Input
Amino acid sequence: MVKINLDGSFSHQGRTGGTEIIIRDQNGGVLGAAAICIDKANDPFQVEASAAVRALNFAKEMGFTKIMLEEDCLTVIRKLKEMEQDLSPIGTVIEEAKWRMSRLHECHVMHLLRSGNMVAHQLACYSLHLANDEYRLEDYSNVISAALHGDCNQQDYHAVLHVKLSKSVNGV
Output
């Protein structure tokens, strides 16, 4: 199973959006990343829902059929989990995401706090300024590499902190 972190960013001024998708293996290794522009966007929820559709499509194109989709937009996560048809303004996008999810062997959706989705959030903001979409499998742009490096450092810090706290709690 692969984990997909995604996020969307919305520009009220330009009525545009940007999405970032990061696909990781069970060890946290990056398998692929994408920064995608959305030319015409009505609101942040539409961008977040579009990010889910694009993430599912990207993962399917890479051959993944067992997916854990993680996003920090609780509204979109709730809508993706609902069984009934979504008749909201973003309903067509939500229904497309549900259809794509149904075509996979296994797909779980999970809400993350923004603090757990910072790399995708930083890169979604970056994608607002792109002229063209970027799909990366190995050769990451400087911006993506820097964000991923920062995420690894943050994860290492939290792992060390967890070990230190565990030792102090257990009296070691």
Remarks:
- Strands lie at 2-11, 16-24, 30-38, 66-71, 106-111, 134-136.
- The helical segments are 44-61, 74-81, 91-102, 118-127, 142-169.
- DSSP finds five helices and six strands in the chain.
